[in-house]
Amino acid sequence: MKKVGNHNSISRKLLLGVTLMLAISFTSFAQDAAPAAATEAPAAAQGADPVKGKELFNSNCAACHKLDAKATGPALRGVAGRHDKAWLYKWIHNSSALIKSGDAAAVKIYEEYNKSVMTAFPQLSEGDIDNIIAYTSEEKAAAPAAVPGQAAAGTSNGDDSGVSNNIILGALALVMLMLVVMLFLVNSVLTKVAKANGIQVAPKTPTTPIWKAFAKNQFLVLVTAIFLLLASAYFVYGFLMQVGVDQNYEPIQPIHYSHKIHAGDNEINCKYCHSAARVSKNAGIPSLNVCMNCHKNISEVAETTATPEYSKAFYDEQIQKLYTAVGWDKATQSYTGKTQPVKWVRIHNLPDFVYFNHSQHVTVAGIECQTCHGPVETYEIQKQFAPLTMGWCINCHRKTEVKMEGNDYYTKIHEELSKKYGVDKLTAAQMGGLECGKCHY
């Protein structure tokens, strides 16, 4: 019998190669955990508690003061080195009295900061003030030095497992290649064995191609043509019905505004910024002066505000864009008079022939903003939540009950229509909410 080769040696080589590649890929998962170096907080000066001082600072001082930048009042880091403690007690307890006494330092601060009178805090004890001073006396934390090839703290690195994944994918690709090669080798060996033993391989019987068989069957051709026409009509109709529907439209604005931070984390009421929604047809774009009600004293966000997608530096840059737009100089705490208009991108846009009144829905009907605009308190970037189509509005009118409590205008109408329809609560549709003239001019 003819010798066809030693295939055991080939299998051993293949098995050895696969084992070696898998061993390399699994060892890449092992990572040494570097112990984090614990940093010690600076000791409180003279027994004062800087932790309590931070709480007192945030609740009493942060509205007008920052640690390292001027705001309504001066920066307070290191204030104990600029004034003695007895003077600070008098100033914090009653700054007006200290100014009237003619104290030179008090008068200088009063004149320098546009004669803004500091709020008196007689409720703070000297111990509380000592704690605040201890907090303001802490050294400013230095930013950690960037290590090449190391991700910054608090940010996610998409390449953390990239090396090991690449090795695993490479190993799998190599295994698949080996299997293909082995199939060719097996086929070659079987062919040689068949020839050596005089075995004839039966030739393939020619068959009719499936497309020719299909073309000859007229019934199948007719059914397929009808199906394709109906399917095409369905998809064309669906496409045309989506023209002008901008659901989930999420444009990038010139100034990044996070509803998640403002309406979500800080729980600012929607109608504080969009006050026109209560009394007007349009909700309106809030004036930048509304933003400055808070951001006059908030020139940067807290460290905890940063997310993997948006850093603290990014949010601080957006606040600076606001300052540039309104002409606010945070160094002098004054307006420069040089303003720049903000070209906001409109998100919700109804056709001109559609009438919609915000005050009628928000004030009269008492509908929450989230009903139409979605959970805006969770949106980092505002988007169009609802399709705002005619069918969507009609369905809302059909299922929404009219708010009758405290509304004498609907009392008589409600009594008559409730008898007519045999219901206790009327929907907007039963009150005429489906009439064409209600929404169309």
Automatic annotation (TrEMBL):
Domain of life: Bacteria
Extent of the signal sequence: 1-30
The entry's keywords: Electron transport, Heme, Iron, Membrane, Metal-binding, Signal, Transmembrane, Transmembrane helix, Transport
Cytochrome c domain residues: 48-140
Pfam families: Cytochrom_C (PF00034), Cytochrom_CIII (PF02085)
Entry-linked InterPro entries: Cyt_c-like_dom (IPR009056), Cyt_c-like_dom_sf (IPR036909), Cyt_c_III_dom (IPR020942), Multihaem_cyt_sf (IPR036280)
Keyword Signal carried by entry: yes
Keyword Heme set for record: yes
Transmembrane annotation, as ranges: 167-186, 219-240
Listed name of the protein: C-type cytochrome
Organism (species): Flavobacterium frigidarium
